[in-house]
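Next comes this protein.

***
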Amino acid sequence: MNLALIIIIVVAIVLAIVGGLNSALSWLLWVAIIVGVIALIAFLFRVISGNRST
């Protein structure tokens, strides 16, 4: 997997955890969901397109 994609996924997970634990900053949960969806779309695009660059 691409290093940038792994970093995006980790950031999305961290934001989801922080957003889920702190109700005062509930907007972080939405940011995490959006970033996670973007990371998932990028991952699926790489899998479907068949790019195997390392």
In short: The longest helix spans residues 27-49. The mean pLDDT is 78. The chain has two helices and no strands.
